[in-house]
Automatic annotation (TrEMBL):
This is FAD binding domain-containing protein. Transmembrane segments: none annotated. It comes from Lentzea roselyniae. Gene3D superfamilies: FAD/NAD(P)-binding domain (3.50.50.60). Coiled coil: none annotated. InterPro entries: FAD/NAD-bd_sf (IPR036188), FAD_aromatic-hydroxylase (IPR051704). It comes from the Bacteria.
Amino acid sequence: MALVGDAGYCPGPAIGGSTSLAVLGAYVLAGELARTDDHVAAFARYEDEMRGLVHASREFALGAAKALVPSTRAGVWALTRGAQFFTSLPLWLLRPLVKLNSKGMRLHDSMRVPDYERQGAEVSAP
């Protein structure tokens, strides 16, 4: 048995990239199963491939939760005013500001997708 998505990864409090992990996890599991007839080995490689991404998702979610749930009155005020300010900006100004974030806007921007076809997996289209 293999678990994918939220059931398999428990990614975090609503901001950990669970949809991206679910799609990538299903893809990786299918790719690893296609590479071999040994499902035990495929499950082990699937787990190895996903481990780092799941841990990164959890860390991302915890960091985002800490940033989005302030613990002081000043933090609540700053978060509220900051959100009001950024949502009032015109798109032509907001887009370049967002690009200043070198980590990417979303967790899935940093996810590496294996190319199973080049690795010899039998990939057939439906």
